[in-house]
User: What shape does this take?
Amino acid sequence: MEKLRTVRGVHDLLPNELHNHNEVINAGLEISDKYNYSQIEIPIFEFAEVFTRPLGKSSDIVTKENYIFKDRSEDELMLRPEGTSGVVRAFLNAGLVQDVPQRFSYYGPMFRYERPQKGRLRQFKQFGIECLGLPSSMADIEVISLGNDFLCKLGLLDKINLKINTLGDFESREIFRDALVIYLNDYKSKLSRDSLKRLSVNPLRILDSKNEGDQKIVENAPNILEYLNSNSKARFDDICKGLDHLNIDYTIDNNLVRGLDYYCHTAFEFTTNELGSQGTVLAGGRYDGLSKMLGGPDIPGVGWAAGIERLAFMVQSEFVNKTDVVLIGQSEKNNFLLLPIMKKLVQNGIKTEIIYDGNLSKKFKRANKIKALYAIVLGEEEISKKVIKLKDLKIGSEEFLDLNQAIKRIKINEDLE
Ligand code: ATP
Ligand code: MG
Assistant: This one.
C-alpha cells in the first residue's frame, strides 16, 4: 500500500525540532509572565465571522489563505489564521470589559493556505501577547519592550532589527490614504497585479509590497508622517521617546504597514537577515477598532505575534536526551522484576529505561547509544542476595547495593535532589 504522508506545508515535529520550539515558547511564557501577562488558550476553530468580520475583505489571510469549511450542522467555521481576533472575542465573551486592563499571552498552531517555502507553512505556530483596555501609548512601549526582552532571552537580539511606524488615527489615515491613491493612480499601468487590486480595497498594503517594481514606485510616495494630525504625531513621538528611554534600537520605516483594517497608530516588526525573504520574526501593532468589529464596546488593544518556526530555526540549541539509568535483566524472565524497580526510580525523579531485548552485550550497546549514566543489572545472584548491581557506565565500576542505597548514590552523583 502507498505510504501516507503529511499535507503540503504541514510538518511533523520530531523531538529535536520540538525541543527548539519549546525553548521559544518557554522563553515567551516566562518573560510575559514577568510582565504580568497571563496565559490564555482559545479554540483552534471558530465561527468564520470571528475572522472575516474584523480582518475584512481586503486581507490576504481571509480572502486567499483561509481554511474555511462547513461542519455537519452547516455552521461556517474557520481554522484560525491568527490569534488576536480570538483572544479579543474570548475577552468579550468572558465579560471582562469592566475589568481592564487585561494582559494575555498565548501560543499554538495557526492555519493559512500559503505557498509553502522555508519559514512559510500552512500550519505554523505563533506565540503572541495582547494588552487590552489601555489607550495610552505607554502600553505600546510596554509590548515592544516585552517583544525585545523575549528576543533578548533567546539570545537573538544582535541578529534582529526593530522597525516601527505609525498609521495614525482614523482621520489621519483617511487623508493619507486619499493622497496615496492619487499618487499611485499615476502608476496604475506599472503596479503589480496584486497591488493593482489593492489600490481600491487596501492601498496602504501596497507600501508593504514585496514586488521590486512596486517598491520603486513606493519610494517616492507620500509619507504618512506628513499627514498625521497633532494627536497622532504626539503619540508617535512618545513611543520613540519611550524606546529611547529603554535603550531599544529601532529604525522608522514609513512603508511598514499591517495588513489588516483594524490597525491604527503603532505598527512594528522585528526582522532578521538570517532567514532569507521570510525575515519577519515578530510583528504587531495597535488595534483599537477590533473590539467593536466583534460586536463589543470600544476597547483599545495592542499586541504582537511571533513566528515560532522562524525563531526556533534561529535558536538551534542542541537537544540532548540524557538517560540516567537503564535496567538490565540478565535473562528475559527477570524483566518482570525490573518493573517495580523502574517505578521506584521514576518516583525518585530518575529518568529510566528498561532494556528488554537482546543478549547482555546488545543491551549494553543500547545503554551506550542512549548515553545512560548508570546500569542496574539484575541476575540470579543479585536476586538471591536481594541486591542489585549498580554499574557506573562512565568509569565502569560496579557495586552490589540494595535499591535504596543505589538510588541515593545516583541522586548524589547526578545532583537530582
Ligand atoms: P508575512 O508578510 O511574512 O506573510 P504576515 O504579515 O502575514 O507576515 P503576521 O500575520 O503578522 O504575518 O504573523 C506574525 C508572524 O507569524 C510573522 O511575522 C511570521 O513570523 C509568522 N508567520 C506568519 N505567517 C506564517 C507562515 N505561513 N508560516 C510560518 N510563520 C508565519
Ligand atoms: Mg502573510
